[in-house]
Amino acid sequence: MTVEHRARHQDRPGPAGDAPWHALPAEEVVARLGTGDRGLTAAEVAARRQRYGPNVLEEEPPPSVVALLFRQLRSPLIYILLAALAVTLLLGEFLDASVIAVALSLNTAIGFAQERRAELAVRALAQMAVSVARVVRDGHEREVDSRDLVPGDLVLLEPGTRIPADLRLTRVTGLEVDESLLTGESRPVRKAVTPVPEDTEPADRRGMAYTGAVVTSGRGRGVAVATGAATELGAIAGMIRREPVSVTPLQARMARFARLIGLAVAVSAATAFAVGLAVGEQAHQMFRTAVALAVAAVPEGLPVVVTVALALGVRRMARRNAIVRRLNAVETLGSTTVIGSDKTGTLTENRMRVRQLWVGGQVRPADGPVEEGSPAYQVLLAGVLTNEAQAYLTSDGIHATGDPTDVALLVAAMDAGLIPAELREEHGLFAEIPFEPERRYSAAVWEVDGEHMVYAKGGPERIMAMCDRQLAADGTVVPLDHDQVAAAASELAAQGLRVLATAHGRLPEPPADPDDVAEPEGLVLLGLVGMMDPPREGVAEAVAACQRAGIRVIMITGDHAATGSAIAARLGIAEPGAEVLTGAELGRMDDEQLGERVGDVAVYARAAPEHKLRIVDALKRRGEVVAVTGDGVNDAPALKAAAIGVAMGRSGTDVAREAADIVLTDDNFVSIASAVEEGRVAFDNIRKAAFFLISTGAATVVAILVAMLLGWPLLMLPAQLLWLNLVTNGLQDLAMAFEPGEKDVLRRRPRPPGEGILSRVLWWRTGLVGLVMAAGTLLMFWWARYGQGASVDQARTVALTTMVVFQAFHLGNARAEHESTFRISPLANRFLLLSSVAALAVHVGALYLPPTQWLLRVEPISADAWLRLVPVALSIVVAVELEKLVRRVV
Q1: pLDDT given for residue 598 in this prediction
Q2: Which of 34, 220, 528, 781 places its Cα 20 to 30 Å from the Cα of 653?
Q3: What is residue 60's predicted lDDT score, i.e. its pLDDT?
Q4: Which residues pair with 556 in a beta bridge?
Q5: Which ranges of 351-472 would DSSP assign to H, the alpha helix?
Q6: pLDDT at 259
Q7: CA 704 to CA 285: how far, in whole Å?
């Protein structure tokens, strides 16, 4: 449904019949809206404001403090911990309950602080898009708050004006509008008042000016046909609100993981309780043991590890000018399989630059000084003298204003050593022929050394029609070689360059009327200028890095197909000449047909917001984890629909920033590759901590169940289980979040979306670790109790200490999924080393201090026991190293 139809359905004044505003003559639009050259009266404005409301978009309020706090608790694993907290409180295990409560509080505080900081930073970036508008009311020009505009208001436009409402233009004078933030079109659009067919896409509606676009040159006026939510911008905002928030891969994995852990814990606790009763243990004792075993098996430290690992990724990204609004976004980017990037302002600089000059069959780069009077100098001089832009040097470089094409010509001339202001003073301007779409050229007549010279620039074919000679590479004038010039223009255009031709000629006498200059003829073609909106520095390397990481990069732009194709080829996104799918072609496809194409097409051109949404949805249906980058209003719906949206903070719109998960404050696509690396490192560390916690928990459960089945006394008492879980694991798992990234992190394929927190390899290794650690602990209990005749408390102390040392050695195994632990420096993660040593020291101290001896019912163990249990615990390193070696070899 078009904006105009939406306007009618929202009690807005609509056009007659079914024809939208852009398809109607301007006079009919004015009559329909009841306005004219004098604009609306004050009474009409008041009535319409009462009827239609303010000219503002409905803004989504920022999340409240309470909402942000509760957002940190929305995790199935957190639910399990809350249940464990409730049970331990009911049983009076206040120490254990306190530790669980501290873990929950720490997780909530870290997540809340980070997301709150990010929210405030994004709000600080936001600025009012439009503050005032110049209108005609009661026959007088005046400035009004843009929020007070109503349908029918007559709005005046001049360079620098940001369009305050959707306008049907009624008068234009060289009016050009930058619509890149709305349509993705990199070049300003020349406006007209003539109607266009009903099915014309917004980017090609020359008689319309839409909210948020900026006037780059010329003047005009238009009547407001839609305000607020009824505008094109309002329609896009509505699409954003309707789009549900995607579940991130980490959230999906954690949910599956929590369900699995919850089931395993319940089965283990129930089994332990039943077996204990079967072998004659007291029901009360076994209930407490079952609860302690369940708490020990629950990896309550994992939510804190997840939060800390993501927060560390956020901190590292902040150093690279990225604001991460939601913690899960860090890991999601690491899981990304496809990045759909906007072109203008994201991959490119959104600034036209002259790249090449062609003179007399020779091509030269448009940088470096040129000799005065040389052919290249003549080409650049013509660009200066047929130019309405202004440029001057500042301490920060060249500052320019005006039409981007004119600005590019001035900057190129200044880079080559020409000084536009001096040249314009030196040559007296006599007459101008401004650019018009119908003419396809502009010209100016200057007095040079007492003669009148005409300079012209425009499309190559158009300028060649005025010429009969051309400038050769050696500076001589030769007959025009039409085929040579046309071939050169085609070659430059094939490189994605916008091509202009320049020419000059002497007039036998000055024009009789400076306001009515005839079309020049008999000119000398000076040369061709090839310009483009260049790729940002480092983007090609970033794209290559993403591709090495197994991430497919595609371009979704509102720009023309040829331009998009050339930029994509230059950046390595697509091969030269690769297929480009346009918005019009996409609109003729159903979802099934589009789904068959999105796996092959890497460049989408002339794409409207709804097209971007369909592309993202089609990729998601194929199982892809999609990240979308962009800066414009037209990017916002896709930013929200994607698994992760990355908006530009400096040049981007407020709408895009609000829809995004990550905001790049330096607008640099290069940061995406760094973010992917940080995301993968964060998830790796979460996976390492999960593996460590689950494998050690499994070892404890297996050891206790086997001991019960053998008819032995309880291997560990409830207090000892809690000690093992809460004290010796308390810091090591958290220290895993500080692990540096592995060397191959950006050379791996993205993780399969269906893969859980632990891979198949790690689940198999969890079983191996559980069996080896359980067997070693049982062996040491048997040796102490039945081999040495030690007391039950002494044997339990040996078993408990064996498990503690097992865990200390197992930390090294958990630091890499594939690489040998001996290839990783212990000093690479000093926090982990210190926490491991501290845990051992705390446990050893507990064996010899009376208060902890009484609380835990432990006793000091002999040197002989230490000499036996340390080699037994080392067996876990041997077992895992052998398993890794077999996998590397096989």
Answers
A1: 94
A2: 220
A3: 59
A4: 604
A5: 375-385, 404-415, 420-426, 460-464
A6: 79
A7: 14
Give pairs for 303-306: CB < 8 Å, separation 24+: 303/75, 303/77, 303/78, 303/81, 303/103, 303/104, 303/107, 304/103, 304/106, 304/107, 304/110, 304/734, 305/685, 305/686, 305/689, 305/690, 305/733, 305/734, 305/736, 305/737, 306/107, 306/250, 306/254, 306/686
Provide the token pair at 669: 């696509």
C-alpha span between 173 and 20 (Å, rounded): 24
Q: How far apart are alpha carbons 630 and 627 in whole angstroms?
A: 10
CA pair distance 528, 376, nearest whole angstrom: 10
Are 390 and 567 a contacting pair, CB within 8 Å? Answer: no
Residue 729, token pair as written in the block: 């694991």
**What whole-number distance in Å separates Cα of residue 514 and Cα of residue 430?**
7
- For 418, the token pair is 């020409």
Q: Which of 153, 342, 635, 654 is catalytic?
A: 342
Question: What are residue 324's DSSP bridge partners?
Answer: 662
605: which strand partners?
582
Rounded Cα gap, residues 340 and 616, in angstroms: 8
3-state helix, strand, coil in the chain (%, to 5): 50, 15, 30
pLDDT along the chain (890 residues), means of 10: 38 59 91 89 92 78 70 68 74 67 68 61 43 86 89 89 91 84 72 88 86 84 90 73 60 76 81 84 76 68 72 76 74 85 80 90 87 92 89 74 85 90 86 78 87 92 94 93 93 85 90 78 95 87 89 88 86 91 90 93 87 91 88 75 82 68 78 80 87 89 88 82 71 82 82 80 94 97 94 95 94 90 90 89 92 88 94 96 89
**85: its two tokens:** 């907290």
**H or E stretch covering 166:** strand 166-178
CB 499 within 8 A of CB 530: yes
Is 543 within 8 Å of 567 (Cβ atoms)? no
How many angstroms separate the CA atoms of 694 and 686, rounded? 12
Choose among 884, 714, 703, 718: nearest CA to 807: 703
What is the distance between the alpha carbons of residues 678 and 662, in angstroms, rounded to a whole number? 13
- Report residue 364: phi and psi, to 5°: -135, 150
On whether the CB atoms of residues 375 and 360 are closer than 8 A, the answer is: yes
Question: Which segments of 345-391 does DSSP mark as H helices, in order?
Answer: 375-385
d(CA 86, CA 412): 72
Integer-rounded Cα Rg, in Å, for the chain is 36
Pairing of strands 441-448, 353-359: unpaired
User: According to the model, what pLDDT value does residue 162 have?
Assistant: 83
Has 342 been annotated as catalytic? yes
Q: What is the 3-state secondary structure (H, E, C) of 649-673?
A: CCCCCHHHHHHCCEEECCCCCHHHH
